[in-house]
Specification:
The complex is a heterodimer. By secondary structure, chain A is α+β, with helices and mostly antiparallel strands. Chain A has a single domain, classed as Alpha-Beta Plaits. Chain A has eight helices and ten strands. In chain A, the strands form four sheets. In chain A, strands 8-1-10-9 form a four-stranded mixed sheet. A two-stranded antiparallel ribbon of chain A has the order 2-3. In chain A, a hairpin with a 5-residue loop joins strand 4 and strand 5. The radius of gyration of chain A is 20 Å and the shape is globular. In chain A, 33% of the residues are buried. Chain B is an all-alpha fold. Chain B has eight helices and two strands; from the N terminus they run αααααββααα. In chain B, strand 1 and strand 2 form a beta hairpin. The longest helix of chain B is centred in the N-terminal third of the chain and has 23 residues. Classes of the chains: A alpha+beta, B mainly alpha. Chains A and B meet through helix 5 of A and helix 6 of B.
């Protein structure tokens, strides 16, 4: 008997630790059987990746700083993608995840139009892999065929496996998503937001926390931590100096 | 005005017959398994005839009474049941079994260690060793993730939920049963099948009914991800 657990899976991403190495993007690609992107797909703007790293430049030329934000499905509590689906292919489950049911999807793409984060990917083509990779696909993840929508599932297969192996004694941090495992700096943390002692919920209470596009009231389960600027005080000092002269 | 589809007389009867045959086929396919005609057979010839009756049936019925888990070793631990490697078959059948049997000769050759038919020399040829292309009988659609271990875990601890129990098994009042006694729920009494065929329709309705009865998860993402 699988007891109903009142879980809410969530993720905390520390943008201060992110150095933009794209390790998470590659790990996600491998874990979730995402077809490889070639130049043609980039040119057409039809790249498939469940997680992408957005880069922002800050400052003028000699003092330029690069800022990186990894963006994946935010698993919003008030998800704009859910009510627009005519076939209920995307819905919110009782573990706080926004689930995409591939076999229900008919490919209307309404959800992708509704998503303000642009993280839903549509399969415009039948997915193909080079011959040598074909046998390396993850057997725990469905291969999405042409004409259906897909997005980050927060590694649903890993959550299910973890729950199965642990039984009732699931420890915090036992389930790790692929991007979290691959992150060299440990910027990504995954866990149960409903458990007040879990690492994510402690991090999510930090002063640096923010969520993407809060004005839309989507209430995402992915929380970001703002960057800490080590040069902030120094810059202020310089400004103060220039003001003196 | 000319009527394209005849509705009265003999023509009407023929139309009715054709429509009812089509509808019967449709409902049959929708509700259960298709009738075993016109290539819809639920079983087929394997490259080597493997009689489950000889291996898995109890000794009283002329079998060897082997556990399902002896060959399908990962079934209680992993998601997939796995067909054993040829080495496992050959570990017994190098010596056991008739030397004239066509199937056993094929099996011994596939294992790479066999006796030459002419001069009775033992040949060890690793290049001859090759996996057998067994044909899969029970196949779920690609968008379903079925995990054997979780189901076997549950059924071994809840024998009352086991279905299709063969007559020779007595599960009354037992608290736990060995893993090899729960397979019949979905696979039927494989030990009495000369050729394995699919007993249950194995469609989503059947999965969900059983999950509802036994308190399993009915979240879509439990199986579709």
């Amino acid at each position: 008997m699988v007891a109903e657990k009142n879980r809410s899976w969530g993720m905390v991403i520390d943008t201060d630790k992110c150095n933009g190495c794209s390790g998470c993007v590659t790990a996600c690609q491998v874990e979730n059987n995402i077809p490889l992107n070639d130049q043609n797909k980039f040119e057409r703007g039809r790249v498939m990746s469940w997680i992408r790293i957005e880069r922002y430049w800050e400052g003028e030329f000699p003092n330029v700083k690069a800022r990186f934000i990894p963006i994946m499905c935010q698993h919003c509590e008030n998800a704009p993608c859910e009510p627009v689906c005519p076939v209920y292919a995307t819905y919110h489950n009782n573990e706080g995840l926004n689930v995409q049911v591939y076999n229900r999807c008919v490919g209307t793409r309404y959800c992708a139009n509704g998503c303000p984060y642009i993280v839903r990917m549509f399969n415009y083509w039948e997915p193909t892999w080079p011959e040598e990779i074909r046998n390396h696909l993850n057997p725990d993840v469905t291969i999405r065929s042409r004409g259906i929508m897909e997005k980050c599932s927060m590694c649903m297969q890993r959550i299910k496996r973890g729950e199965r192996n642990a039984g009732d004694q699931l420890q915090d941090g036992e389930i790790k998503t692929a991007c979290q495992e691959a992150c060299t700096t440990g910027a990504i943390t995954f866990g149960d937001l409903n458990d007040p002692e879990s690492e994510v919920s402690i991090l999510a209470k930090s002063d640096r926390k923010y969520s993407l596009m809060p004005q839309l009231n989507t209430n995402p389960n992915v929380v970001y931590l703002a960057t800490v600027d080590p040069y902030k005080d120094k810059n202020l000092g310089e400004k103060a100096k220039t003001n003196e002269h | 005005m000319k009527v394209l589809i005849p509705l009265v007389g003999l023509g009407g009867l023929t139309t009715l017959a054709i429509i009812s045959i089509l509808l019967a086929g449709l409902f049959n396919a929708w509700l259960g398994q298709p009738l075993p005609v016109l290539g819809f057979e639920q079983t087929f010839d394997q490259p080597i005839n493997f009689p489950h009756t000889k291996h898995a049936a109890p000794v009283s019925e002329g079998g060897l009474g082997m556990d399902c888990t002896y060959c399908h070793r990962t079934v209680a631990k992993a998601s997939s049941a796995h067909v054993p490697a040829v080495e496992l078959c050959a570990s017994c059948h190098r010596a056991v079994g008739s030397y004239e049997s066509e199937d056993l000769i094929k099996l011994r050759e596939a294992s790479g260690i066999f006796e030459n038919a002419e001069d009775k020399q033992v040949i060890v040829d690793s290049e001859m060793a090759s996996p057998i292309n067994w044909r899969r009988v029970h196949r779920l659609p690609d968008h379903v993730r079925f995990v054997h271990s979780a189901h076997i875990d549950y059924l071994t601890n809840h024998p009352s939920a086991i279905g299709n129990v063969p007559d020779r098994l007595d599960l009354e009042g037992k608290e736990t049963v060995p893993a090899s006694q729960v397979c019949s729920t979905c696979h039927g009494d494989v030990a009495s099948m000369e050729k394995v065929y699919q007993v249950e329709p194995l469609k989503m309705g059947q999965c969900v009914n059983c999950h509802r009865k036994n308190g399993g998860p009915t979240d879509c993402a439990a199986c579709h991800h």
